[in-house]
Amino acid sequence: MLGNYSSATEFYLLGFPGSEELHHILFATFFFFYLVTLMGNMVIIVIVCVDKRLQSPMYFFLGHLSVLEILITTAIIPVMLWGLLLPGMQRISLTACIAQLFLYLALGTMEFVLLGAMAVDRYVAVCNPLRYNIIMNSWTCNFVVIVSWVFGFLFQIWPVYATFQFTFCKSNLLDHFYCDRGQLLKLSCDDTLFTEFVLFLMAVFVIIGSLIPTIVSYTYIISTILKIPSASGRKKAFSTCASHFTFVIIGYGSCFFLYVKPKQTQAAEYNRVASLLVSVVTPFLNPLIFTLRNDKFIQAFRDGMKRCYKILKD
């Protein structure tokens, strides 16, 4: 514990409650999730880069989404895994805490922008197929990706700066497995109400701002699909959007619980569960959602494995 009127220069992550045996089970579970996330998303990136059949805007965005998923999980899970192996509390420096929180929030913001762009891409593909290659050209795709990266990093500078301007004099014990902003604000002796409200408005701006084009796009997509006379045509049109739509529901749903709330200092158990959904479960599901129902990607993966087998055999 810290004395009054002093600020923490390092923090201790309490991680997960429970016995040592439970920690070992959690370590094995989350380590498995992390490995699958890394391998699955890396496979997506490699296949999208090397297979000419996947050289389209949808797979271009999917490749960048996989990069973000790898970075988001790597910013959180290794620290969490190390904490599960330690017998006591896990120490993290103030600098490392700032870097982790900034990367986590910035990469998450980029992902929301990219998800909105992917929704617009599906709208153009379904509703304006004849103009698809003209509208979603390489310049447009590169511009969208660059904007998402720049916006994500710039947008989260002030929220992270404002968070660490407070004096953390109550304690330096963070009841979480990473440097969660809500738990950090709990440790402050200052009045954080106004800052929490501004952070709430910024979270609403990012999440709702990227959700609006998604809702509008899918409104037009569903309307267009319902007008297709044949059942096979409707099924084919919907299959091009099903993976993205599923990921949108999971991703936005979990982030609504974590970020879009006026009071950032929620209970630690609530934040832990929501954070696990965002940083562990969603990235783990991403390769499964986007590949298992995608015949073109599955075929490209099979052909890639056959080529690798021939090279190794020779």
Automatic annotation (TrEMBL):
Signal peptide: none
Highest rank taxon of the organism: Eukaryota
This protein's record includes keyword Hydrolase: no
CDD domains in the record: 7tmA_OR6C-like
Pfam families on file: 7tm_4 (PF13853)
KW Cell membrane (keyword) present: yes
Keywords: Cell membrane, G-protein coupled receptor, Membrane, Olfaction, Receptor, Sensory transduction, Transducer, Transmembrane, Transmembrane helix
Transmembrane segments: 25-50, 62-86, 92-118, 139-158, 197-221, 242-260, 272-292
Record-level Gene Ontology MF annotations: G protein-coupled receptor activity; olfactory receptor activity
Residue ranges occupied by any G-protein coupled receptors family 1 profile domain in the UniProt entry: 40-290
Compartment(s) of residence: Cell membrane
GO cellular component, one term: plasma membrane
UniProt xrefs under PROSITE patterns: G_PROTEIN_RECEP_F1_1 (PS00237), G_PROTEIN_RECEP_F1_2 (PS50262)
Bilayer topology: Multi-pass membrane protein
SUPFAM superfamilies associated with the record: Family A G protein-coupled receptor-like
UniProt similarity note: Belongs to the G-protein coupled receptor 1 family.
Protein's recorded name: Olfactory receptor
Organism: Tupaia chinensis (Chinese tree shrew)
